[in-house]
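[User] I have long wanted to understand how a fold can be written as tokens. Those tokens are not coordinates but codes from a learned vocabulary of shapes. Could you go through the record with me and say what the backbone is doing? Thank you; the sequence and its tokens follow:
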Amino acid sequence: MVTLIPATPPLQTTSHQKEAIWYDRDGVGWDVGYVLQFERFRNKLAGSLICAWDTGYDKTRKVWTAIDSCWPAAMARCANAEDIQICLTFAQQNNLHVAIRVKPAPIDRQFAENGVLILDTSACGAI
């Protein structure tokens, strides 16, 4: 299962630990395996993927969820039906819940939870 909680930098690190943690622009430490998993996922999409370490994540999550305390694992702007299938497969393989945004409005509060993968399908039209 993918964990959303960022890795905290240890007070004393070994060279192995330094390689296993990647620090974003805000100094938050992330498990490298977690980051790489989402980066490989991002590269498969025709649309875009916004992850917690990306610029614009905080602003986008507040618009998409309308809840200040909701921290999605990632938010995918699906460009086509294939993107939706790629997202659903990724979510299934990584035990992530999925919330689907079908119009430019926040997702329903009942689906806004930490660690969810949000799919914005509004650009896909009728599928």
Remarks:
- The CA atoms of residues 7 and 30 lie 5 Å apart.
- The chain has a mean pLDDT of 78.
